[in-house]
Structures are given as C-alpha cells and as structure tokens.
Structure prediction request, 33 residues.
Amino acid sequence: MAYIRLIMAKIDNRCTNYAVLMFIYDTVIDIRG
Prediction:
C-alpha cells in the first residue's frame, strides 16, 4: 500500500515530503510485520 502514497505524491507535489515519510514508516512496519 505504501507505493500508492508515492503515486499520490506525484499527483500532489505539496504532499511529497509527507508521502515520503509515510512511505518510509510503512516500509518499516512491513519489515517488522
């Protein structure tokens, strides 16, 4: 699901930084289960 945030970030550049942080956060959650 995290990659969807990156797609949304490209659509709405204002949220790019937020989307990247959420992507990193989601990735950590996925790795830890």
In short: The mean pLDDT is 76. Residues 2-32 form one domain. Helices lie at 2-11, 16-32. The chain has one domain: 2-32.
